[in-house]
Design goal:
The complex is a heterotrimer of chains A (740), B (209) and C (186). Chain A is of the alpha/beta class. Chain A has three domains: 235 residues, Rossmann fold (3-Layer(aba) Sandwich); 173 residues, Dimethylsulfoxide Reductase, domain 2 (3-Layer(aba) Sandwich), CATH 3.40.228.10; 119 residues, Barwin-like endoglucanases, CATH 2.40.40.20. The N and C termini of chain A lie far apart (65 Å). By secondary structure, chain B is mainly alpha-helical. Chain B contains eight helices and one strand. Chain C has 186 residues and is an alpha+beta fold. Chain C has a three-stranded mixed sheet, with no helix packed on it. A two-stranded antiparallel ribbon of chain C has the order 2-3. Chain C has a two-stranded antiparallel sheet with strand order 4-5. Classes of the chains: A alpha/beta (740), B mainly alpha (209), C alpha+beta (186). Chains in contact: A-B, A-C, B-C. The interface between A and B is large, with 61 and 72 residues.
Amino acid sequence: MRNLFERAGEVLLTRRTLLKASAAAGAVAALSGCTREPAAFQSPATDAGVQTFRTACPRNCYDTCGQIATVKDGILRKVDGDPLHGYTRGRLCVKGYTYANRTYSPDRIKYPMVQSPRGSGNWKRVSWDEALTMIADKILDLKKRYGSLLPLALDKYSGNFGIVHYAVEGMLSSMGYHTYALGTPCWPAGLDAQIYDMGAFMNHDPEEMANSKYIIIWGANPAWCAVHQMDIIMEARARGAKVVVIDPIHTATASKADLYIQIKPSTDGALALGMARWIVDHNLHDKAFLEQHVKGWPEFEAYLKQEVTLEWASKITGVPVEAIVELAGGYATTKPSMLWMGYGMQRHINGGQNIRAIDALAAITGQIGVSGGGAQYAHLATWGFNYHAMSFSPPAGSVGLKGPDGKYTNRTVNMNNFAAEIQALKDPPVKMLWIAGRNPGSQDPDAKDIKKAFESMEMVVVVDHFLNHSAEMADIVLPCTTHFESPDVNVAYWHYWMSINERAIKPMFEAKSDLEIAWALSKKLNQLQPGSCTYPTEGNEEEWVGKEFNQGIYDLFGIRDWKALRQKPAKATLPTVSWADRKFTTPSGKYELYSDKAKANGLPPMPTYVREMQAPAEFPFRFLTPHPQHALHSQFQNIPYMMQSNPEPMLEIHPKLAEAKGIKDGDMVRVFNKLGEVRLRARLTRLVPPDTVVTYESWYKDSKFNVNHTVAAIPADMGKLYTGNNGISFHDNFVNIERV
Amino acid sequence: MIDAGVAAFCETRLALFYLLQRAYAAPMTPEVTHDLNDALSLYGELINVELPPCEGDADEAEFNRLFVGPGRLPAPPYESVWRSEDRLLMQAAAEGVRSVYLEYGVQNTYPEPEDHLALELEFYALLQYRVLNGEAPHRHLAAQQRFWTEHLSTWVPAFCQAVEESTSSPFYRNLAVASRRILGAETTILPMLPSAIPAEEEPAHAKSV
Amino acid sequence: MPKQLGFHHNMANCIGCKSCQMACKNEYELEAEVNWRRVYPFREDPGTPERNFLSVACNHCENPECARVCPVGAYTKRADGIVEQNHDKCIGCRLCTMACPYGAARYSPAHRKASKCELCKTRLDAGLKPACVEACPARALTLVDLDQFAAPGAVKSVPGFPNSNITNPSIRFTPPVVGKQFRRDA
């Protein structure tokens, strides 16, 4: 028997020792204690040995918070709000305060791993080189077999809205013409609606809400989803404003309202039209504004007078006539009055049309372009970056989809009908998926069909932090960094601020950012086949953040150099009141109550009422699945802080409905329709209406719970104009329920 | 001068901890299994465990499932995870271990936090090496005692228990049992060493690792 | 020097977002199970349902029960009214968790000790606000000196809050306001 010690030494010398001599072998404080015995709960805020970094929450959220990451000895200790961010003002939300908890989860994907067979749970660790080789081999193989990269499809959306993350799109483009998911499940119907009405969607500076005297929060729940707006609402209130909430669900926001109106889902247009009728009848419309700045008023007025009555509106919406009167009167006479439409309310087959009807109220009362007024929805005015990370073209000689002009392009599938369309594509079919910043396994409608779509692939690559429902079905998972580990820059679609995102800690394990993955994959592709990818093969991440800036951004934000953002976030010098000049960017240059463009696109030209989807007989209850409090879609709910605070999904069900179905508080309920089912525990409450059951969509740790087993990919009425595809009517979901 | 028998025993311990490091750092190979079994047999009845041959791919998959991911780890091999209520990385234990490494002039080159089991085991072995080859063996013995008391012993037994309970691989089950017993044996062994090893000693073996 | 620091909880503004609860955990790196501040949904009034919430940490009582029952004298009341704990002394007997009417003292099974909100005393010393107060986005939580505090309509207790005259908690509430509602199940 050879000397064991020698053999052990050999083992280590030929593999590796994990510990190497360190440069600084000096004296260090005595062995520190074991656990953080909370002997003195030292707040890192008062600890001299800490470093702070400016970071920015990159989630898809109105608030896009400025953050300060506190790091001690290379370890992220806590994350606070950046007091110098003028909108988020030093505060985060419940999710933001769990970031340290999330970053250091032992369940994070650490290394590239390969699952074989797919879905088996049999995972093998591979090196980045091996993973990239497998991926590159497959890409080159597909190119060879099909003559193009159209069999490779990208599904990416908003998991990380940092600008440099558009490297993913750039990476795909730099390999060839490919297939990608076009559209957005989020807000497109409303975007189109505002474009038809005003030519563009451009909300006021949200701080303007403090100047309003009558605020209608229509189908939005800032208490959970835009928490920083609450301070502004409270300010408005302190200045004497009245707050109205219109929502099918009695939300936490609704509980702060002076007036709460519980409306039947998807009937918002009828309510707005009823209000409009009342306003016109009482001569409270702004005739001068309508004459000078609005196209189509006579036609619309005729429609109101002929087709709209308060009784009609009341019947459709379930809102009593007296409430419509109070609402209309308050809105028309307590000026300036502001409308804020949320995204949830336009996720219906008539969502876009309903937004148009609500916009019309602002036009009729002459409150567009008015401080404290307007119809607020969204903007993208601060997003004029270079998108340098995305700016790489297919290699010369690449073949794609041939356009009418003879030029090649990418091929698109509808992001909002992904499963069906991906499987239906031919010539060539889709054989490979790249999924980043998206979790279709949890978030797409028709979860079963998504699974089938994945199963039909030859290779699925998922880039993510956790083994969620999409990663579970992947062949290869690649570990990506959190925003604390990679630099970036962030702006918002609601407020006007821009924040730098500094790298606060080193990447964990072997995680790479989407940008680093792009460089590495390009390097591998070019190794295997020179010239097969035009993406740079290396770079400096901080420099690439700098490359996103241009003079337009500098001028807009009044800064000379992007590095100034390290000292504080910057605010765009946009007018705080949009449309103040009343120069609408519609074809007529006016606000268009009558839109020829809408008509040309097969839509009603005016914000006339389009009937809401009716419940089929066998599935008589609507199943609303709005955004949760403790998560942002499938992010956050799975971590310890959230699982402790919110351990399981609950079905909010009205006591009348529960009684009719023999369901008691705490019973397990099966919620089902033709597509599938979910099971969850009942919570009896009058905070939801008797014909609607509600749960908040999310991904719970180790749970198969997914509302999208019941949600079909029903398109909303609009969205195609701005985003290429119509939105999804998530909330036109009809079910039946029974006690389990 | 170290007694030859004691030196041999210390070398066995050294090899054993290095080999354990290897067992938790990466999937096993037949050679390392063989060597580990040799080392274990030298411990005799104290451990009384033999490792079955490792099953190549199946055991590699099991190694990943238990210790690496990409899903929820039934037995995360990090001290922080076992000593923080929420199973989190980079807690005080990681910091504590890092300062110990710094004090001893070593740093981590493994893409894992400092309190990963493989690192802690290697460090423990390194201390044993310095006992055999360093100038102040009692200082290193004391450090080894402290590292065992303040770190390894505080979590590895519970970790091993979790491995035993969640694995159906005979290899990893036996490895966990062996690891637990080896750590447990230190309770008996560590106090004996100071009297068995002279205070100042010239290197018995000049190997550098 | 303030005489009795405490919280003013404006429930009329509170949206139950839990930023306060989580900001505290973030600040002190507490375990998931240990919540020094807790946001409770208010029991639903069947008459006029609302989503209302109560956010309670430690009330730094005038007569703290924790200090009274602690067998090792771990709790002391400072001149500014903060009831602080000498965590080293704690033996984990849990008497304080049982005696406190408000659930302020929280037991950690991992550390086998109890702990609670200390009104961010080190932050206050550094001129910062308590983490929870800083985090609140809805103007629902403020730090006040009860000796000088006066807000019209503020009360010492609300239904559902353990009203203990024995401890005299240093908290004042502005009760929630129920707005006008047009419901579909009226």
